[in-house]
Specification:
The complex is a heterodimer of chains A (171) and B (91). Chain A is an alpha/beta fold and 171 residues long. Chain A has seven helices and six strands. Chain A has a six-stranded parallel β-sheet with strand order 1-2-3-4-5-6. About 3% of the residues of chain A have low confidence. In chain B, strand 3, helix 1 and strand 4 form a beta-alpha-beta unit. Classes of the chains: A alpha/beta (171), B alpha+beta (91).
């Protein structure tokens, strides 16, 4: 495993990328948020099988779940127990972290895991979230570290769609 | 309405395209091998994996076609489970 902090992002809908495993990265983020429309169910299953069958070594394996008001709750229920934790996309508020932490209590109870074993890495979105970073970090003992999501990166399909919907039809 | 067929997987190296079709009776499993560029297909092992998963899913009648692109067994299982779910298995 790399001694430097290395993060490998793997698309959750790519069988070949998942089969390649962690490739020595310290942290792996498997992305279930940004999958093609209509493929969330198949990607979730693919990720579940990959977490069960691929050797991830000592890497921290996180699953970036879909938005909580869409596929995120299902992602959490089906795969979170197999990973080191989840990346919570678009986090802007500590209450979002608290709600997800509570939902993970139920997942752990159902799967027979020790309480608090599934971590949360909030992916902060926007300046409001950055200002709230200390509160988000302190929102739950599950929070392992923070990821800054705002700007720079490729916007997710979900976010692109939301922006499009807000903008309304062209013309 | 429940679809009678479900498909999952991509025509990409390391993946498998799986089609699940409900049938009146019997299990029919067809494994179409990968091209040599995409790797080797162990048809017997993949067919056994398909039949094992169908038994787990309590499916007793269907037709399954696997177009293998050099996928590991767990990928075929994942794709089959997705295709079956899309055909309404387990609902």
């Amino acid at each position: 495993m790399s001694e430097r902090p290395t993060l490998l992002s793997i698309p959750g809908d790519s069988a070949a990328a998942l089969a390649a495993g962690s490739q020595g990265a310290r942290t792996v983020v498997i992305d279930l948020e940004d999958v093609p429309d209509g493929e969330a169910d198949a990607a979730r299953l693919l990720v579940r099988y990959a977490l069960e069958h691929v050797s991830w070594g000592e890497s921290e394996v996180l699953v970036r779940i879909g938005p909580m008001d869409a596929e995120g709750a299902l992602d959490m229920r089906e795969v979170a127990h197999l990973a080191s934790g989840i990346v919570l996309p678009g986090t802007t508020d500590p209450d979002e972290v608290r709600a997800v932490a509570e939902a993970l209590d139920a997942v752990e109870a159902e799967r027979g895991l020790p309480r608090g074993s599934i971590g949360i890495v909030p992916a902060l979105a926007g300046s409001k979230a950055v200002r709230a970073a200390p509160d988000i970090l302190a929102a739950s003992p599950r929070v392992r570290w923070l990821m800054f999501d705002a700007g720079g990166g490729r916007p997710s399909r979900v976010r692109r769609r939301a922006v499009k919907e807000r903008a309304g039809p062209p013309g | 309405m429940v679809a009678a067929t479900g498909k999952a997987g991509r025509a990409e190296r390391g993946d498998a395209e799986v089609e699940f079709e409900r049938a009146a009776r019997g299990l029919e499993v067809l494994v179409v091998p990968a091209s040599p560029r995409e790797g080797r297909t162990d048809g017997e092992r993949l067919e056994a994996a398909v039949r094992e998963l169908l038994a787990d899913l309590e499916v007793v009648a269907c037709r399954v076609t696997v177009r293998d692109h050099g996928a590991p067994e767990w990928v075929v299982r994942a794709r089959l489970e997705a295709a079956a779910a899309r055909a309404g298995v387990g609902e």
